[in-house]
Amino acid sequence: MSVNRKKPPTSSDSAAGNGARSETSLVDTVYQQILLRIIRGELVGGQELKSTLLAKDLGVSRTPVVQALQRLAADGIVTLEINKRAVVRPGAENWLVEIHQLRELLEPHAASLAALRISDETFAQLDELSAAAADHTRPDWTAAIERFDFALHLAIADSTENLALREAIRKCWSFKRLSYSAAPDRPETLEKAMQEHQAILSALKARDPQTAAAAMLFHLRSAANMRAERRIV
């Protein structure tokens, strides 16, 4: 049997990789900052987004702004007109709300599928994250809750064995994670969400598809109702 041995990375390979990651990270940051301004109503529907002005305002070069606008256009949040002008789509300020509505359609079904398929190894990882999130004495308690939140929902998506459903939920979560920094939750809201997450996890462990789906739908609807900032869910 032949073994495919990868050569160790050279210093030039490492530098190139770090440069690529830095560029991607900067585009991600610019993308998120522009999207948050749209969601907050600071950039309104029909408004032209001038890359030069945005670059100056965000303190970056024009290149990552152009790339971020192209991504926003690909996601349907802005339009790129024939003359390459980027314009905010009317209604785009409701993007996170509408993403949450899509999650209400996708994630209960995903939970019902995952209840029969999720692995014991995944349960062990989720139990560890759940225990950390339940410890209110941790200085990073809020971050621990966010880690458990993210891990639980994506573990469910990954356990569906449905590639299209998995990718759709992961795409939704690429936007959902913006809410962590956009509008921090109150401690009582975090505690309630934690209890709901544990109820979902318990239903999954019981291998109960119907209860898992119901617990997920209840959690998502509760999350929408608990948000003080209605456009950020």
Key descriptive features of the protein:
Four Helix Bundle (Hemerythrin (Met), subunit A); 3-stranded antiparallel β-sheet; single chain; mainly alpha; 233 residues; 2 domains; Arc Repressor Mutant, subunit A
Strand-helix topology:
Blueprint: H1 11-39, E1 48-49, H2 51-58, H3 62-74, E2 78-80, E3 86-88, H4 95-114, H5 120-134, H6 141-158, H7 163-176, H8 178-182, H9 187-205, H10 209-226
Antiparallel strand pairs: 1-3, 2-3
Helix pairs in contact: 1-3, 2-3, 4-6, 4-7, 4-10, 5-6, 5-9, 6-7, 6-9, 9-10
The largest sheet, given as strand count, sense and whether it forms a barrel, is: 3 strands, antiparallel
Query: Roughly what fraction of the amino acids lie in strands?
Result: under 5%
Mean pLDDT across residues:
87
Distance between the termini: 52 Å
**Class of the largest domain in CATH?**
Mainly Alpha
**Uncertain spans:** 1-23
What is the string of helix and strand elements?
HEHHEEHHHHHHH
Spell out the CATH superfamily of the largest domain. Answer: GntR ligand-binding domain-like
Count the domains: 2
Rg from Cα: 20 Å
Please report the total strand number as a whole number: 3
The computed structural class is mainly alpha
Helix content: 55-70%
What is the 3D form? elongated
The number of helical elements comes to: 10
CATH topology title of the largest domain = Four Helix Bundle (Hemerythrin (Met), subunit A)
Identify the CATH architecture of the largest domain.
Answer: Up-down Bundle
